[in-house]
């Protein structure tokens, strides 16, 4: 179940859910190690910190969105996935009404160590919308699927073989720019977090506690060192 947050409510419902989470560490922002989460502050403080940070980040993200992408819907909605068994995760999507939505799981709220990390994560997800990454990935996926299917058809493929080629193209198309999108979101997010009054350099220390994905071919995330450098470069 996803609980509506919209920057003003959802506080007390989080308190009982934050205790004793044991989840695998997967997610688009970074991947902390698996195992029991060590909550560095009280459950009450973790929930209140999230609300406080979100209230400061959202209006700045909206202002940057309206400035840099005025044709987009910039009315961000921040929601909490209240499943305590969800992975440590945060991601961005667009709802049926066209509003950009930032989803943060309860284990992620418990895992972050300070306001700067929480601000950087929220800002990073807002940046994905501002940079139109969902639309750009969708276009790349469709184009690659069409290219692969056309090539297969010219080679005489049909039926299941044609479908397989299209699916392979779609997978490759969805990943070819994935690392670039993450670095772009890190850079834009760093500036949003800074303008909201947080320290993005300290926020990016989140990666120090996350397994490094390395520079895998068609990987979905760049090396952690590249992400930290993207933050530093954006703030120079």
From TrEMBL:
Record domain Peptidase M48: where: 53-233
A single Gene Ontology CC term: membrane
Signal peptide residue numbers: 1-21
Keywords tagged on the record: Hydrolase, Metal-binding, Metalloprotease, Protease, Signal, Zinc
One of the GO biological process terms: proteolysis involved in protein catabolic process
PROSITE patterns: PROKAR_LIPOPROTEIN
UniProt KW Plastid keyword: no
Cofactor note: Binds 1 zinc ion per subunit.
Pfam families named in the record: Peptidase_M48
Requisite cofactors: Zn(2+)
CDD domains: M48C_Oma1-like
GO molecular function annotations of the record: metal ion binding; metalloendopeptidase activity
Recorded family membership: Belongs to the peptidase M48 family.
Protein name: Peptidase, M48 family protein
């Amino acid at each position: 179940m996803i609980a509506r947050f919209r920057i003003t409510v959802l506080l007390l419902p989080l308190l009982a859910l934050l205790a004793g989470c044991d989840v695998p560490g997967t997610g688009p922002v970074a991947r902390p190690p698996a195992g029991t989460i060590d909550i560095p502050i009280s459950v009450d403080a973790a929930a209140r910190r999230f609300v406080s940070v979100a209230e400061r980040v959202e209006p700045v993200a909206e202002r940057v969105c309206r400035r840099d992408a005025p044709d987009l819907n910039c009315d961000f909605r921040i929601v909490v996935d209240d499943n305590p068994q969800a992975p440590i995760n945060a991601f961005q999507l667009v709802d049926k009404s066209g509003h950009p939505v930032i989803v943060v799981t309860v284990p992620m709220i418990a895992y972050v160590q300070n306001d700067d990390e929480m601000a950087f994560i929220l800002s990073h997800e807002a940046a994905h919308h501002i940079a139109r990454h969902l639309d750009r990935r969708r276009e790349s996926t469709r184009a690659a699927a069409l290219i692969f299917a056309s090539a297969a058809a010219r080679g005489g493929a049909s039926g299941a073989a044609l479908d397989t080629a299209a699916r392979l193209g779609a997978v490759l198309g969805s990943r070819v720019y994935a690392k670039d999108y993450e670095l772009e979101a890190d850079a834009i997010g760093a500036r949003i977090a800074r303008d909201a009054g947080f320290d993005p350099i300290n926020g990016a220390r989140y990666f120090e506690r996350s397994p490094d994905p390395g520079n895998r071919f068609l990987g979905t995330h760049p090396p952690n060192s590249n992400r930290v450098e993207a933050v530093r470069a954006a703030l120079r």
